């Protein structure tokens, strides 16, 4: 995978935070920290998209039916012993 060099601007507080994370041994350098933040945001975004899709699927799946807990429990017991 190729890399691209970027220039970013941080506040002193943000820079100090990154330096503290590196000093604590959580990251080896600034770039590793920034890449980790991006990976986490990508994961969070994918999770949010999946939740939204599930909600839309549920909303469009038809009329709701009454949930019968006793029938559900019996069905699970029968299926799983």
Automatic annotation (TrEMBL):
InterPro entries: ParD, ParD_sf, Ribbon_hlx_hlx. SUPFAM superfamilies: Ribbon-helix-helix (SSF47598). Keywords: Toxin-antitoxin system. Belongs to the ParD antitoxin family. Antitoxin component of a type II toxin-antitoxin (TA) system. Neutralizes the effect of toxin ParE. NCBIfam families: antidote_CC2985. This is Antitoxin ParD. It comes from Thiorhodovibrio winogradskyi. The gene is parD4_1.
């Amino acid at each position: 995978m190729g890399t691209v060099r970027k220039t970013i601007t941080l506040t002193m507080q943000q820079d100090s935070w990154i330096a503290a994370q590196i000093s604590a041994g959580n990251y080896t350098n600034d770039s590793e920290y920034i890449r980790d933040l991006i990976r986490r945001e990508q994961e969070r975004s994918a999770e949010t998209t999946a939740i939204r899709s599930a909600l839309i699927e549920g909303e469009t799946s038809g009329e709701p039916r009454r949930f019968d807990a006793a029938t559900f429990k019996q069905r699970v017991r029968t299926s799983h012993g």
